[in-house]
């Protein structure tokens, strides 16, 4: 993968990317709505935003990312640990990372995402400011506001970009839906928080025991 400094990007920052002038789709309790305006923002506009303003750029539209809930962070931290332990145990040539990490998913000027968790099974530059192209595995943890985004828009974006495996973790239903995109059309498999879930990109050698996460967060469901 090639990692480029944004200053060398072919796009020039648009003055409309200033905080007061940027059209950002806010997370709502319903779904993510498309912008009514035709203007498309670019990677240059993304980098022109204030550093403390966390957004994703998808197909030229900004989506605001609110602060995650406590349950989200508890699941993410433990999921990162379980993936890391599994990868090390089975000597997989992979690295697991968690948000915030910029991913220029389509290698174009109109999409930059920050998956909750990503697994890379190829070489990359540890000094890079972003990753180029599709991770091998992505996991997103649903919230009320991100449900439509993660289950519809990002599902299709990840599949088209070449992500091999996509986990959708739902704290509300205590379930994990796994999409494995290799070998044709994906047939999702759904597991609950007591299952040991196979990591398909490892050919089944690696499993994540979600009951360990449930042991941590279970008391908060009482």
Shape: globular
Strand order in the largest sheet: 4-6-8-9-10-11
Indicate the multimeric state. single chain
Structural class: alpha/beta
Extended strand count: 13
Q: Overall pLDDT, averaged?
A: 84
Structure description:
The protein has 222 residues and is α/β, with parallel strands linked by helices. Helices cover 22% and strands 22% of the residues. It has four helices and 13 strands. Strands 4-6-8-9-10-11 form a six-stranded mixed beta sheet, with helices on both faces. Strands 1-3-2 form a three-stranded mixed beta sheet, with no helix packed on it.
Q: In terms of topology, how is this protein built?
A:
Layout: E1 24-25, H1 43-48, E2 55-58, E3 61-64, H2 70-89, E4 95-98, E5 103-104, E6 117-120, E7 131-132, E8 137-141, H3 147-161, E9 165-170, E10 175-180, E11 189-192, E12 196-198, E13 207-209, H4 211-217
Parallel strand pairs: 1-3, 5-7, 8-9
Antiparallel strand pairs: 2-3, 4-6, 6-8, 9-10, 10-11, 12-13
Helix pairs in contact: 2-4
Quick tags:
22% helix; alpha/beta; 22% strand; 4 helices; 6-stranded mixed beta sheet
């Amino acid at each position: 993968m090639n990692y480029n400094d944004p200053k060398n990007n072919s796009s020039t920052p648009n003055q409309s990317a200033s905080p007061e002038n940027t059209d950002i789709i806010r997370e709502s309790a319903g779904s993510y709505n498309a912008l009514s305006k035709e203007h498309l923002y670019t990677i240059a506009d993304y980098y022109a935003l204030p550093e403390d303003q966390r957004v994703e750029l998808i197909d030229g539209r900004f989506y605001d990312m609110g602060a995650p809930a406590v349950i989200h962070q508890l699941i993410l931290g433990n999921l990162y640990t379980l993936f890391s332990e599994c990868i090390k145990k089975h000597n997989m040539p992979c690295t697991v990372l968690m948000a915030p990490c910029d991913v220029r998913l389509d290698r174009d000027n109109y999409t930059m995402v920050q998956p909750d968790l990503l697994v890379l099974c190829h070489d990359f530059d540890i000094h890079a400011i972003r990753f180029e192209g599709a991770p091998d595995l992505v996991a997103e943890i649903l919230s009320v506001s991100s449900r439509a985004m993660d289950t519809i828009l990002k599902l299709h974006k990840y599949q088209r970009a070449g992500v091999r495996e996509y986990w959708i973790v739902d704290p509300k239903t205590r379930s994990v839906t796994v999409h494995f995109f290799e070998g044709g059309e994906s047939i999702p498999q759904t597991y609950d928080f007591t299952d040991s879930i196979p990591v398909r990109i490892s050919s089944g050698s690696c499993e994540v025991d979600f009951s360990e996460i449930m042991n941590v967060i279970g008391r908060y469901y009482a």
